[in-house]
Amino acid sequence: MPKLTKKIVDALQHEPDRDVFAWDAEVRGFGVRLKPSGTRTFLIQYRNAERRTRRFVIGQYGILTVEVARDLARKKLASVIDGGDPAAERRAAREGMTVAEVCDWYLEEAEAGRLLGRNRRPIKASSVAGDRSRIDQHIRPLIGTRIVSHLKLADIERLQADIATGKTAREKRPGRGGRTAGGAGVAGRAISTLRSLLNHARRLGIIEQSPANGVRVIASNRLKRRLSVGEVRHLGKVMAQMEREGEHPTALAAIRTMLLTGFRRMEVLAMRKAWIEPDDNCVVFPDTKSGAQMRAAGDAAITLLLSQGQRSASPFVFPADWGEGHFIGVVRVLDRVCARAGLEHVTPHVLRHTFASIAASLGFSELTISGLLGHGPRGVTQRYVHLDAALVIAADQVAAEIARLLDGGEVLSMKVAKRLRSASLPRSFAEA
User: Fold this and answer.
1) In terms of Cα–Cα distance, which of 295, 305, 299 is closest to 391?
2) Region Disordered: which residues (predicted)?
3) Is it true that domain 97-203 has CATH number 1.10.1200?
């Protein structure tokens, strides 16, 4: 085991699944750790007064030279001889961590995939991005400098009230990005993010206790907006007119797809051609908000997806205008379409609500609609084949009805819908 030098540290080769260590021959217990990410840090390893092995990180290579790190290691190891425990002392100092420091720790760990969510899998990048936005826009400005161990439950609920009343609201700034608003929904999501990250920190020993335990998250006014039959028919006419005038065809196709399927915005925009299975009338999503799923899609939706997929060589059904990614600008086009149509408060999620509403108007049960939307605990084809066939039939009839409305047709009567549905359902399902 040679004496550590810059040449030796630089020559270390990282391994993809484990840390690599090199130890110094001059100062026993002093070494360098190379992580799979390529980061090199100096550390000491020692036994404390209880004869437990501990490691203490001195600093990162590049910021510290080998010589400076060795001198710091000597001082820390000397304190161990006197009964000190550098790792325990650092842990105690963490009780003085600020909210901003704990938030930074959480974001770093979550983005690296080292924190598991409720499904026992690494927290999704989209979820972390949402958390970062709430931290930067609401949590950090209001309590970022506060010491976590000094916070009380009342402080967390006061934070929630401040966000709800718009204390962190600000108008849209030049360039990309939207307007930061307050409200009950924003406040509730911000507090849920704070509570979650503090619980991660407590569970992993970063803080002793979470001041957010027991907080009552404010109830938000859930969006009830959905398009009526007349509004869907009017929207279809406006979309057809704007398409003839040169409105973005990819965005219009994406809007129509969301209406015909009830799929979420990013499920539609990020859809790949390889996921479409026209013979089985479904789209196979390797990952959704509820995990991997096979989702039923009616003939009208499948026909639209296949037609849209033939427009380019991109692996995405809805490709970006430039680059190799998928299209993202559907919200701006939807806003333009709805402004022309005189429809207010219409978002991609409203289109999803509209699909569910029309399914309900056709007489389909809440369980069936839940399966169509991907809310159920299992995908389309899991255990009960007859239920899968019923979902496909339901998706086909709902998509056909919405397509009829978008194309200016009349609404299907409940009586006719029930007759068609009962005539086409599998026998085992009809008898269940």
Assistant:
1) 295
2) 166-185
3) no
417 pLDDT exceeds 70?
no
**One-letter identity of residue 268:** V
Which residues of the chain are in CATH 1.10.443 domains? 229-431
Question: Is there a contact between 107 and 131 (Cβ–Cβ < 8 Å)?
Answer: yes
Rounded-to-integer distance, Cα 403 and Cα 260, Å: 7
Helix residue ranges, H only, 112-221: 125-134, 140-143, 153-164, 184-203
Q: CA distances (Å), 265 to each of 261, 310, 327, 328, in order?
A: 11, 21, 11, 9
Contact between 81 and 113 under an 8 Å Cβ cutoff? The reply is: no
Residues 6+ away with beta carbon under 8 Å from 228: none
Q: Give CA–CA dist 322/325, Å, rounded.
A: 8
> What is the CATH number that goes with domain 6-86?
3.30.160.390
CATH 3.30.160.390 positions along the chain are: 6-86
Tokens of 135: 């931290």
| Confidence grade of residue 211 (pLDDT, cut at 50, 70, 90) | very high
Residue type, 35: K
Element (H, E) at 47: strand 40-47
